[in-house]
Amino acid sequence: MVECEEIKANVQKHRQNLRHSKEELNRLNQAIQRLTVESCKPERAKDPPALQGEGASGSAKGKLAWLEAALHQAKQDMVQQLREYQELMIVKLGLDFEIATYRKLLEGEESR
């Protein structure tokens, strides 16, 4: 029973980690979209002063490259967490099967 509770806690923890990774991935996607839209605008007057001038395209490209790398890393993390979650679910199903088997054995013993 203690192992089952530990597994449930681990599954809950991994679900929460997966949820956080998805939220971070969504934030990064929005930032990439925002940077892409900003770099496509013909009018640069509304850009912050740090992004104006000749270095602006390099700075924006650098930020875009960084965000793309972060997005790639977040995707890799999400894939890894999904694999771990699937492994945990397999273990959980095995434990559920064992619990059901022992429960039937106990019920059989009690009925004698």
Written overview of the protein:
- This protein has 112 residues and is mostly helical.
- Helix content is 86%, strand content 0%.
- Helix 1 packs antiparallel against helix 2 (55-111).
- It is rod-shaped and about 80 Å long.
- The relative contact order is 0.13.
In short:
The chain has helices at residues 2-40, 55-111. It is mostly helical and 112 residues long.
Shape: rod-shaped
What is the beta-strand fraction? under 5%
Radius of gyration: 25 Å
* Average pLDDT reading: 80
Count of DSSP strands: 0
Q: What order do the SSEs take from the amino end to the carboxyl end, as H and E?
A: HH
Write the layout of secondary structure elements.
Elements: H1 2-40, H2 55-111
Helix pairs in contact: 1-2
Question: Key terms for this structure?
Answer:
112 residues; rod-shaped
